[in-house]
Amino acid sequence: MASRVIPVEPFDLIVVGATGDLGRRKILPALFRRFCAGQMPPQARVIGAARSKMSRDEFRDVVAGALREFSPAQASEAGALAGFLDCVDYQAIDARGSSGWPELGEKLSPGRVRAFYFSVGPDLFGDLARRIREFGLVSDDTRIVVEKPFGHDLASARALNVALAEQFEEREIYRIDHYLGKETVQNLMAVRFGNMLFEPLWNSQYVDHIQITVAETVGVGGRGEYYDGAGAMRDMIQNHLMQLLCLIAMEPPAKFEPDSVRDEKLKVIRALDAVPPHHIVRGQYTADPAHPEAAAGYRDEVGHPRSTTESYVALKAHISNWRWAGTPFYLRTGKRLVARSSVINVMFKDAPHSIFDADAGRHANILTIRLQPNEGITLHVTIKEPGPGGMRLVDVPLDMSFAEALGPDGRDPADAYERLIMDVIRGNQTLFMRGDEVEEAWAWTDPVIAGWQSRGDVPKPYVIGSTGPTDADLLMKRDERRWRGINP
Ligand code: BG6
C-alpha cells in the first residue's frame, strides 16, 4: 500500500539555527526526504540563517554532509542531492541586532508561504519574532515554528507565549511536539475514532488502567547541560507523554480540525489531578558494576557529581471526569533503559464472570499500541487452545504490524519531522500544541517538581540497561498491578 504524495505549493522556509544538531539530524533530512518523494517542489527555498558568516556554497557543503550522514539512502540516489542543494541558500543574521535581516528579506519571494523555523534556544524566540516584524519580513502567509523546550515552567512558558503573541497571531504559531508527528500516534486517533469497536469500551467501566512507557537506551549524550537543568519530568513527561495521555483520554472531537482536537486535549489536562508524592518515582542511572567501562553513569555523563536531576520518572495520574474517574494512567520514561520502546497499553478489565473452569485460565484483553520501534497495534484476545485436550484458554495477539500490513511505507514510515514540516506548509495546526495547552501542562507539572524540590528528594539509582528503579515496580505492586515488559 503506497502512500499518496500530494506536492505542496512552492514555499520559503527559513531555518534559524539550521547548522545546529536538530537542523542537521532532523529538519534538513526531513525536507530532503520530502523533496525526494516529490512533495517539496524544486522551486521551494530552504534558507539557513545563523550567526556564523558563511557563503551559500559553504552552507550547501554543511547540508550535503548532514544529508549523507542522516539520510544516506536518499543521498546516494543520482541527482537527488544536487537537486535539493539547488533549493538551499544561506544568510547570516544577528538575532539581537540588525545585520543580515534586510538581505534575508531580499531572498524571500512574495505570494508564497513563508515559514520561519526557530531551531534555537527559547531565549531567542522573542528577539527573532520582533526582528521578523521590524524588518518587514511578515507576509500574509507567515508561519512561525518553535521547538521545545517551550519554557522551563509555567511562568517562562507564559512569557514566551506573550513574546510571540506580541508579533503573531495564534493561527500563525506552530509549537512542535514531535511525538504528535509519529505515524502510530496519529493512528491512535484513526483507531479510536474510525472504528465502532473500541469507543464504547473506552472508559473506566471497561478499562482497568493504562500504561504509557517511553523507554530509551540512549543517555543524555552531548546535551548534559540542558538536560541536567531539566530532567525527565520537563524533558519528556510535560510534553511527549502528556500528549499521548491526551490522545488516549480525550473525548471524540466533533471534527478532525485543529481547534476541535486541541480543545479536547486541553480539557483532559485541566481534569488531571495533582500528583501526590507517593505516586511518583524518580530515578537516575548509574554505571553497570559488571561493565563500568561500557557507559558512564548519569552524574559522570553530565559532569555534575551531586546532581539530583532525574533521568527516569514513573508516576500514577488520575483524570477526574466521567469517562476516566477510577482508571489510573501509569506513565514512565527513562534513559539508558534495557530497550528502546515506546508503547501504550490499554489494559481492559476481566470479564465479570467466567463460565469456564478455574483451571481453564483467564486473560484480560490488552490493546497494545507500539509507537517505536516496530510500529503497530496488537489486540490481545482470549481463544480456546487448539486441539482436543479440553477447554483451555490462551491469550493470542491479533497483530497489526505496520511493516507487514502496509508494505514499504509501513516499514519505513515518514519521520515525524517530515509530516510536521509539511503540515506547517499546508497550514494545518492539528498536530501542534496551542499556547493554552502548553501552559496547562506546565501548571500540572510545576507543583510536582516543586514538591520534590521542597522535600529534597534524591532520585533512586538504577543500573544502566535495567528496567528502571525497583520503586517503580512497587508503585504498581501496591495497586496489585504490574508493568508490561520493556521489549524492543
Ligand atoms: C526529545 C527529548 O524531545 O525527545 C530527548 O528532548 C529524547 O531527551 C527525545 O531523547 C526522544 O525522541 P524519540 O523520537 O527518539 O523518541
How would you explain this protein's 3D organization?
The chain has 17 helices and 15 strands. The chain is an alpha/beta fold and 488 residues long. The strands form 2 sheets. The chain has a 9-stranded mixed β-sheet with strand order 14-13-12-11-7-10-9-8-15, with helices on both faces. Strand 4 (113-118), helix 6 (125-134) and strand 5 form a beta-alpha-beta unit. Helix 7 (154-165) runs antiparallel to helix 16. The longest helix has 21 residues, at 435-455. It is globular. The mean pLDDT is 93. The structure holds 6-O-phosphono-beta-D-glucopyranose. Residues 148, 178, 216, 235, 342 line the site of 6-O-phosphono-beta-D-glucopyranose. 6-O-phosphono-beta-D-glucopyranose is lined by residues 148, 178, 216, 235, 342.
Task: Please tag this protein with its features.
15 strands, Dihydrodipicolinate Reductase, domain 2, 6-stranded parallel sheet, 9-stranded mixed sheet, 488 residues, 17 helices, binds 6-O-phosphono-beta-D-glucopyranose, Rossmann fold, alpha/beta, 2 domains
What is this structure, in a nutshell?
With 488 residues, the protein is of the alpha/beta class. The chain folds into two domains: 11-147, Rossmann fold (3-Layer(aba) Sandwich); 180-415 and 435-477, Dihydrodipicolinate Reductase, domain 2. The protein contains 17 helices and 15 strands.
Query: Any idea what the CATH superfamily of the largest domain is called?
Result: Dihydrodipicolinate Reductase, domain 2
Oligomer: single chain
Radius of gyration over C-alpha positions, nearest whole angstrom = 24 Å
Number of domains: 2
User: How much helix is in the residues?
Assistant: 25-40%
Mean pLDDT: 93
The percent range for strand residues is 15-25%
The backbone outline, from C-alpha atoms, is globular
Proper CATH architecture of the largest domain? 2-Layer Sandwich
